[in-house]
Amino acid sequence: MSVIQNLIDGLGVGATYALLAIGVSMLFGVMHLVNFAHGELLTVGAYVMYFLREREVAWIVVVPAAIAAAVLLSMAIELVAFRRVRNASPFTLLLTSFAIEILSHSVWRIWLGSKQRTFAAPDIAFKTFEVGGLTVEWWDVISIVVAVLAFASTGWILRNTLFGISLRASAEDFDAARLMGVKANRVISGAFAFAGLLAGVGGSLYLLRRGSADPRMGADPLLKAVIAAIIGGLGSLKGAVIGGLALGVVEVFVRTALPSGIEGLSDAFVFVAIAVLFVVRPQGLFTVTTAERV
Amino acid sequence: MLAVENLTTKYGALTALRDASLHVGQGELVALVGPNGAGKTTLLSTVVGLLRPASGRVVFNGVDVTGRDPASLVASGLALVPERRRIFKDLSVKDNLLLASVTQPKRFRSDRLDEMASLFPILREKWDVSAGYLSGGQAQQLAVARALMSDPKVLLLDEPCLGLAPTMVDVIFDLLVSLKANGRTVLVVEQQAQRVLGIADRGYVLRTGSIVAEGTGADLLSHGDLFASYVGNV
Amino acid sequence: MMERHRALLGTAGPQAVASLVANLAVLAGVVLGGFAYAAGGGSSRDALVATLLTNMVMVIGFHVFVGNTGVLSFGHLGLASIAAYVMALLSIPLARKSVILTAKAPFGIREIVVDPRLAAIIGIAVATLVAALLGLVVARTSGLAATMITLALLFVVLQVANNWKDLTNGTGGLSSIPRLSGASWPVAGAVLAIVVAVWFRHSRSGRLAVATREDELAAAAMGIDVFRPRLIAFVVSGAVVGLGGILQTQSLGSLGPRQFAFEPTILILAMLVVGGMRTVTGAIFGTVFITAGKEFTRFLGDGPHFLGFTWPKVDGFPDLFLAAALLAVLLVRSSGLLGEFDAGELLHKFMHRFMRRFTRRLSAVPSATSADVIAAPSGLRLVTTDLGVTFGGFTAVDGVSFEVAPGSIHGLIGPNGAGKTTVVNLLTGIYQPTTGCVVLGDTEVVGPPHKRARQGIARTFQNLRVFGSLAVRENIAIADLVAAKYRASRGGGPGVEELLRLSGLGDMADRRASTLDYGNQRRLEIARAAALRPAFLLLDEPTSGMSETESLEMVNHVRRIAAAVGAGVLVIDHDLGFITTICDRITVLDQGRVIAEGTPAEVQRNQHVIDAYLGTAAAQPGDEVR
After folding, report:
1. Which residues, listed in sequence order, are joined to residue C309 by a DSSP beta bridge?
2. CA angle, corner B92, sides to B89 and B96, nearest 5?
3. Quick check: ipTM above 0.90?
4. pTM (2 d.p.)
């Protein structure tokens, strides 16, 4: 019984990781960037929620506004920073993303201070229901449903729209895509917007439960998303989804399995596992396999 | 239609192309030949904007397009079939083609797809197959079809026969001839010099980064320089 | 042998000394400036100097690994943390320990107490040991994978520090750590760090590590196994950073997980990147620049009266400055403010004349005039038999056999896609053959590229791979360094200075290789390969991108070098004018098979060859190539 309960918990948490991880993986695919600034999209969403809720704006407006803020910030970061280092080494790209992360932290701190700003989460975030002896949080169910919808529509967009096809083509061979008339700026900007959208959706699931904003809040979930993306194989979107969900589930199970006294070390065990995984399979678990005629 | 004027391109310290000039007139099939490493691919890459020239100009349709982005050149009617094809192996044949119509107005896209389907029946059969599963010859046809999707005024081809079996080479040469018959302007880079000069209106010989000879196909074939460029002075 | 070693000392020694002296001078300037500033007031300024110096130790520690290997690490503060915790846990007095730690504390740590100095040494030793273990993994991977493993280290250490409360007291941290008296500890630490960093940079491992940073593939072709120098760099930098962790904990007297967490890592990396990660001078400069900037912005944020008006009190200015400085440097000048500038190099140039005299005295006896060059050892025969390779059902090279007589120059040609590059990759170990073998003299050549280089196959690359930011002389000296260890049995052959002279590079020996013109870079690459004292030289398109006159000069150059080294040569090229002039014999490939072999004249008359090149008739039916 508790296994199923843990599974649901894990998938609920993992949904946010997965939605962030898709963005991380996508940006790696198109420009070999591991974007540590991606978590800042969560932070901006949280502050937007805080501001609007202070003014008692309805959730139905607040959530889309938070998502929109994430999309805009994602595009703005690309325009101001990553565009200038697009062809730089992964080393430079990685450090640039860190610089943006700290920049965002300090801007929020200067503006609003480092103290946590809370906003009351909607009631639904904490309601539970019983089924077959299990106590299930509504929010876990909503998270899983929203995530599934998001995955499905992402898949549909990537397969059936010209934008999606350009994105996949650019991830495979950027110059060849340009030779077909795909505008480099537009497709990368689009990728950032799309990644921002998914981060906004995933972030909302996370934020409505958390109900607070502070300058450094984006760092932790983003780290998990990066790990998820690495597990899935950077560049593989399917892998990112599986990696995110798996990470959520593993975390919950490890936490419940560890003896008391070191139960706080669950993340440490996960990190060690990731490091080992990386040594054994540096390309991740679900690397994009290119169809090849044998 | 397309004029390359005194183009010089460098990779760091290496000068891959020196002061090369050539022109392609409306409806012409022009061949660019020369030994491996002579700078043929560099020339095409510079023309389509993948590389920036150190000096010189590219004039297309009377407009100086030097240093323009490849995507905008495709939109204005200059398409390249790149060396080794570079088809998108993860995309289906149809998506490969659809992607290449990105510069076309929406309403023309499906017409162009139909056109390619009838032009290349072999691709029609593989419409929803991942392009990675195509054979070398099919992949090359896809690469050409892909470039034709943008309905280019000038089509550039870089070594379309590279690595193909002899029967497939025949198919590609037939394709070149039919492109020309349909009035398309073509600049083709090809290793098989004698064969391509046999069907071309005019040709240029590139050697160690410089154009060393130009003339009609027949002229060049009887010219000693061509032979010397490949096999050395005996 | 002795001469060679002394000659090496002669070239690298004074540079190391100059670098050390110059960097210590910079440090002295910083310390004096700091104390002059500190004299103005209070203990907080003393603390500032201490912070500056401990940060400097950390930055230099990162530089040793990141700057010399080019692999980004996020994990080093994890090592600093380990050193600090070990030191603290061992040295905190028993009375305090029983208060801080619960009875469940593992390892009997509550009952142990050792002298703080010993505890510090044990701390650094443990950090170094962990670095060695982790290094075994990091040095095997490269690029992003290595970076991510170091990141995992940081987080594991952090998690343990935060959550293993019985051992670390969690976020509460450790306090009452006994302090070593004397404000000079940070100064001593900084001096030590500089000495170690400069020593490492000029050590054998350091030079090899830098070569792998410049170009991993070219380094392997020089017989350098990337693993060892990278591992040693990781261990040395781990020790330095461990020292930094000890110093920082010492100056604070307390220790908590946040001290070595993620933000401090970014701070240290920012210092390194802003200053210029490749030199010790850059590391020092970056530390001072960021520290000063942060101090100034902190002052601004405190709401001072300044420039005529009162500034608002703002939290977060220093971080803003840090992020903005890092971002600006990355976007505008990613090599750092100082770039490759090394105060040591400047000093070295400044003292050039003196140094010349000094080096001459050291290496005067053996300095070889051309007449003294020991006769080149005789070459070995290279035989490939039935060489073939198949990639997923496609045969790229099929049954290729040829033989290169000792000391002769052999050409390998063929049209585009004929398989020339594949044959080169098979000879140099980038691919393993499916069939056949390569025999040099009477030993079979096997293994990965660096092993084959040590067995005597040296190569150059089609697309120039010199070690760009290293001096021309150092490019050759690195190969010589490898040769001294692995090719000593070959004996003889020209030394570094002789190769410089033979290649006409004598006047440019102190310039960075990337500043040479194309032809000279080509010659340098050949000289570097020759310095490996190979039995066999493989030249991959040595004239690509050259004009015809340059190509003809290259003919004489290759002959001269090959004769001096006594090596056989295999030239791959498409320039037939060049090939037919230089080669004794030529093998022609088409579609992965040998279609002709003979003297240049024979090959030029061969109808198969003419057909293959000009594409007159269809080539032999073969599998289609994709």
Report:
1. C306
2. 80
3. yes
4. 0.87
